[in-house]
Sequence to fold (151 residues):
Amino acid sequence: MSDKHPTIDDPELGPLTRATTELTDGSVLTHDWYSGTVVIDGAELELMLEGTNPQDVTPLLPRVRETVADLASLRRIASDAVVTNFSNGEPEPHELEDAASDLMLETIEAASDGTIILHLVDSCGEHFPEGYWPAVHLGTGGDVEQVTVES
Fold:
């Protein structure tokens, strides 16, 4: 990594680097976020922190650390929010349980305003069409502010 895009070495989250994608023609697209991974309960989770330089990203690190530390409860809050948001009426307990086991956390995104977005994947393919996934937006206070479907 060049000095233009220095790596951020966080003692809890590990190294975070400016995200890039190599295109088929060999050119490299540089994104407006830093990325990294953490391993939680044997699963690798992607981290995305909005910002183009360490000064933008560093203020987001405490919020991401808090999120990672609280994943046990946040995973269930997120899956319940998805089911509740897309149900016609009050969801049945078995629907909440099914979603808790079927919707897997894949990415934790930190927006520049402090919002945390939990990107989930449908591990069984029964809840969302292929290529679509639910995202749960947590406000700075930790409450669910919005549930979206992304593609």
